[in-house]
Amino acid sequence: MARFEPNHSSLDYNTLKDAVVVVSGGASGIGAAIVRLLHGHGAKIVFGDLDTAKAEAVVASTSPSSVHFVMTDVTSYTDIVDLFRFALSKYGRVDHAIANAGLIEQPGWFDPRLGIEGVAHKPTTKTSEVNFNGVLYFANIACTYLAHKNQAAEKNSKSLTLLSSVAGFKETPGLFVYQGSKHAVMGLLRALRLYVPEAYPGIRINAVLPSMTLTGMVEGIKDGWMSADLPVNKPEDVATALVGLCVAGPGTDPIWYDEEEAEGVKKMSSAGGMDWDHPLETGVNGRGIFIMGGNCYDIEEGLDRTEELWLGKKVSGWLQKG
């Protein structure tokens, strides 16, 4: 299968020096790791969050002159506009955007204890509002700000990266709204990955799908995962992939193929519109990078190339003509 190597020698992290990056959910966990890593590469970071105390701690641990916090509720379209507007007014451009903010499952959905009376009361939709609506708002606004006065449209040097989850493709019983929202993020990626480079020249879009990552969000479920001796991610592992995608533009070659795991898949033709065979020309675009134990696996190319196997040759052919 296709693999992504964020430490590949072709990736030039020096291009992040003075780059302007907007991040949602940057005060803790993966988001804080993103901010710190970007700061280490010399980027200018504007990040949003609701947790002022943690956000101020991140700023204090980096540099108040180049790392800026803007109070942001990602369920508010106006708040996200204000986040990007701050970056543009401060630096005159936006080079990369990472939609990282997320929320774990909230109780109340599909609870057999509710009964007729209990189910009459609508459960909270906060998880979907943060995990999908927030990403949708962020992506829509980001595309316009990334494209604004873009002098490097031919270079595909700008990037938008969305945070999904292993729950974005693998069933996770009990995480009803969380899983639905993370699947929706992948649907958004697939809808945008051919459209964005044409409508907003110079911008690449990808998604990252971490498995169990040791953040505050998984306190209630991590013990079972770890007792099964399954690989886990550190926040820094996910941040490394997200930041790596920022610099994986044309001319870079961080995609490689693990033929021991999926022999022959690379030889199959693409069933969709993505050109997986020429990443050097476009840079990394349209990928869904699944991360487990710090290793990065792309799920999108294999899914595309094997469509005839899981859908059937005839039906796949119809869809390609459609």
CATH architecture: 3-Layer(aba) Sandwich
Number of strands: 10
Q: Biggest β-sheet, characterized? A: 8 strands, mixed
CATH class: Alpha Beta
CATH topology: Rossmann fold
Classified in CATH, the superfamily is NAD(P)-binding Rossmann-like Domain
Largest sheet, spatial ordering of strands: 4-3-2-5-6-7-9-10
Number of helices, counting only DSSP H or I runs of 4 residues or more:
13
Cα gyration radius (Å): 20 Å
Mean pLDDT: 93
Number of structural units classed as domains: 1
Helix content: 25-40%
Distance, first to last CA: 27 Å
Shape label: globular
Order of helices and strands: EEHEHEHEHHEHHEHHEHEEHHH
Task: Output the structural class.
Answer: alpha/beta
- Unreliable stretches, pLDDT < 50, 5 or more residues? none
Strand content: 15-25%
Please explain how this structure is put together:
The model has no long low-confidence stretch (mean pLDDT 93). The chain has a single domain, classed as Rossmann fold. It contains 13 helices and 10 strands. A hairpin with a 2-residue loop joins β9 (288-292) and β10. The protein is globular, with a radius of gyration of 20 Å. It is α/β, with parallel strands linked by helices. The chain has helices at 29-40, 52-61, 77-91, 115-118, 126-147, 176-192, 195-199, 222-227, 235-246, 279-282, 300-305, 307-311, 313-321; strands spanning 2-4, 20-24, 44-49, 67-71, 96-99, 158-163, 203-210, 255-257, 288-292, 295-298. It has an 8-stranded mixed sheet with strand order 4-3-2-5-6-7-9-10, sandwiched between helices. It has a two-stranded antiparallel ribbon with strand order 1-8.
